[in-house]
Amino acid sequence: MVQTDFGGPEVVRPRALPDPEPGPADVVVAVTAAALNRLDLLQLRGPGLLPGFTLPHVAGMDVAGQVVATGAEVGTLRTGDRVVLDPTIGCGHCAACVGGNPGYCATLRVVGGNRPGGFAEYVAVPAAVAHRVPDHVDLADAAALPTAWSVAWHALHRVGTLRSGESVVIQAATSAVSIAAIQLARASGAWVIAVARSEAKRAAAVSLGADVALDLDDRTAAEVREHTGGHGADLVLDHVGAATWDSSLASLRTGGRLVLLGNTSGDQVSLSLAQVYHQGLRLLGAGAYAPADFAAMLDAYFAGGLRVVRGAEYPLADLPAAYARLESGDLVGKILIRP
């Protein structure tokens, strides 16, 4: 399914393209399922947000399937292997890549972001970004993992350094990132306070493992303190931005950490510098996850006890309808596309 212009779902059309051929270090994967992401929708509307984005474009960042061809230099994977793809592909030579952070590579390529992705029957990628999926994990579930779960893992563990016994507030509790974060935080032994605007979403957060679910209103921060012995939370995870900024900051204890990783409700906020330095607060930008985060996230998920939430599934030909469903915001969980 090829995006031919900027606009609504109508600019995505079926098109027959040549099957991809693997380069020497590549594999070709037959797509079992690919998950829809917010970036896919934003780049559909335009303009392209990732450097190097061009039209026509095949989107689909989160992909799982089976290897059907390998390049001559590939020794780690074989035809028939079940894999899930890390969409982040660095040059491999710059300081960021050598340092293990290809997400900061100046020539970063992203599967489905600025190179062909998974809303197709086949996708070719470097073998290094294809990770084996054990037999007990459904490939469709694996397709829901890459972006949201890696971002959540990175924010909680690498940036937020969440520890067992700490309290964490997770805003927008039923977004894809938050669904992952609630479970990962709970699995690490943290006390999880989820925040969501609707009763149904708060109930969903509790079903995923949140200890408490609160409404987002002018009492949220006070209620967080009530549930934390009057102290406030050790950590707040906020990917919403302006709409939750004041509540997130006010929910922190003295010395607490606010991890920032999104701005869907607005980019500009104001703050009291005195509040931040007098209380010893730490404001931490999560930034790009690393391959080590991706691998650690997979290890945690494959070990069991965690689950993805499938919000809806569509055949590849109905991708325009899937885009419309994502834009409506009326579901909890990932939208999966199946060729």
Features:
Quinone Oxidoreductase, Chain A, domain 1, 11 helices, single chain, 7-stranded mixed beta sheet, 17 strands
Number of helices: 11
CATH topology of the largest domain, what is it called? Quinone Oxidoreductase, Chain A, domain 1
The first-to-last residue Cα distance is 10 Å
- The residue ranges in which pLDDT falls below 50 over 5 or more consecutive positions are none
Helix proportion range: 25-40%
Concise overview:
The protein is of the alpha/beta class. Helix content is 28%, strand content 24%. It is built from eleven helices and 17 strands.
Description of the molecule:
It is built from 11 helices and 17 strands. Strands 3, 4, 5, 8, 9, 16 and 17 form a 7-stranded mixed sheet that branches. A 6-stranded parallel sheet has the order 12-11-10-13-14-15, sandwiched between helices. With 339 residues, the chain is of the alpha/beta class. It has 2 domains: 2-145 and 308-338, Medium-chain alcohol dehydrogenases, catalytic domain (Quinone Oxidoreductase, Chain A, domain 1); 149-285, Alpha-Beta Complex (Quinone Oxidoreductase, Chain A, domain 1), CATH 3.90.180.10. Helix 4 (146-159) crosses helix 5 and helix 4 packs across helix 10 (291-302). The radius of gyration is 20 Å and the shape is globular. It has helices at residues 38-45, 95-98, 139-143, 146-159, 176-187, 199-207, 220-226, 242-250, 273-278, 291-302, 319-328; strands at 2-3, 12-13, 26-35, 62-70, 82-85, 88-89, 109-110, 122-126, 130-132, 167-170, 191-195, 212-214, 233-238, 252-260, 282-285, 310-315, 334-338.
